[in-house]
Amino acid sequence: MTVLGLSRFQFAMTTVFHFFFVPLSIGLAFTVAVMETIYVVKRKYIYKRMAQFWGKIFLLSFAVGVVTGIIQEFQFGMNWSNYSRFMGDIFGAPLAIEALLAFFMESTFIGVWMFTWKRFKPGVHVIFIWLTWLGSTCSAIWILAANSFMQNPVGYGINKKTGHAEMTNFAAVIGNPQLWRSFPHVATGALMLGGMIVVGMSAFGFMRKNADRAFFTRSIRVGAIIALVGSILVIITGDLQTLEIIKDQPMKFAATEGIYEDLKSPAPWMVVGFMNESSHKAAGFEIPGMLSLLAFHKLYGGTIQGMNTLNQQFLGERGKIIKNGIAHPEISNYYVPANVLFWSFRFMAAVAFAVLILTICTLWFTRKSKNTLADSRWKLWILGICTYLPFVGTTGGWLITELGRYPWIVYGLQTIADAVSPTATVGSLLFTNIVYFLLFCLMGGVMIFYSRRVLHQGPEPDPEGATQPVTVGSHVGAHAASRKVALA
Question: Rounded CA gap, 95 and 107, in Å?
C-alpha cells in the first residue's frame, strides 16, 4: 500500500486488460479479411456470411480496446509524470504517428467497411477490411517502437540541463533490433489468438440446437488454419526474440530459465522448478544439454551467465549510469522476479504448442471424408474452453516483457521508483484502482455478454437456402438440396 506499489499494480492491471483486446482485434481483422477474400475469389455466399458474422465480434473487440487504451493513457499523466517528462521527447514522434496515421486509418476504414456492404462491389469492399487490418498492425508497430526503446534505448542523448532523454536519431529508434524481434512475435501471436477465438466460439455454436453446421464447420476450418500458421510462426519469432534478449537483457533470460549460477555448455534446461528469491538458488527437474540447444541451437554455445553473476556485474556498472547525468535512488540489487518470469515463459510456450496440436487435430476431425467433430460433444467442449487459452499466452508474454527489466522502467536510464508522479497519494491511487477494476469488470462483462448474444443469435439466414435444413421427401426440400449441392 505504497504510492510505488499501487502505481505499479494499476499500470499492470490496465496494461494486461488492454492487451486482451489489442491482439484480438488485429487477429480477428485478419481472419475476417481472409473470409471476405475467399468470398470474393470463390463467390460462395457462406463466406460473406462468415465475414459479416465474425465481423461483429471484431467490432466489439475494437470498441472495448479503444476504451481500455484511453484509460491506459491516463496512467502516464496521473501516476508516471516523471517518466513522461523524461521520455516525452522520445515518445512524441512514434505516438503521434500512431494516433494521426495508423489509428486514424484503422478507425476510418473500419467505419467504411461496416456501412458499405451494399454500396461497393465485393472486390472493392474487401479492400476496406484489409486496410483496417493494416492500420491496426501499423499502430502496433509504433506502440512497440516506444516500448522497444524502454527495453533497449538507442538513438538518444541526455540533455545536461534538464536530465531528460532526447531523440538524436529517429532512424535508430525505428530500426531498434528489439522492435523487429518483438513485432513479428506480437503480430503472429495475434493471428493465433484471432484464429482460436473463431475455433472456440464456433465449437460453442455447434452445441446449440438447430446450429448451422455448414457455417460453423467452415468457420472452424478457416480459424484453425490461421491459428495453426500463427502458432508455428509465433514459436519461430519467439525463438528469434529470445536470441536478442540473451544479448541485450541477459538478466531477463536468466530468470525465464531459472539460472542463478553460471552454466557451461552443454547447459541443462529446467523444465519445472522453483526459485528461492531470498537465497538466490533454484531447484527443479532438468534435461541435460537442452538449454544450449534451445538458446544457441547447438550443444556448445558458450557460458550462460546466471543472475548472481549478472547482479554483481550490474552493481559494478552503476557508476557508469550515474555519469550519464541521471540521478537514481540507491539500488541494492538488480534481481528480477524470477518465479513470475520462469512460469510466465513456460505458460506462454505451452500455449503456443497446445494451439499447434489442437488446430492440427481440429483440421483432421473436420476433414471432408469424415467430419466427426460436430457429433462429438467432448471435443467441442475442449475447443470451447480453449477459446481463452491464447489470452494466457499473451498475458505471459507481456509479464516477461515488462517485469524482465526490473528495476528499470527505461532500461539502464530510469528506474521505476524515479518515474512515479511526486504528487500521487495512496488515497487517490487506491480509489482509482478500485474504480478501474470495477470498470474493467463491467467492460469485460459487456464484451462477453454481447459476444455470447451474437453467438446465440447465430449467422444471418442464407437467402439462397444453401445451409437451410432439408426435409427429406418434400418438393421444397429436394429443390433446396439441389441448390445446396450446386453451391457447394
Answer: 16
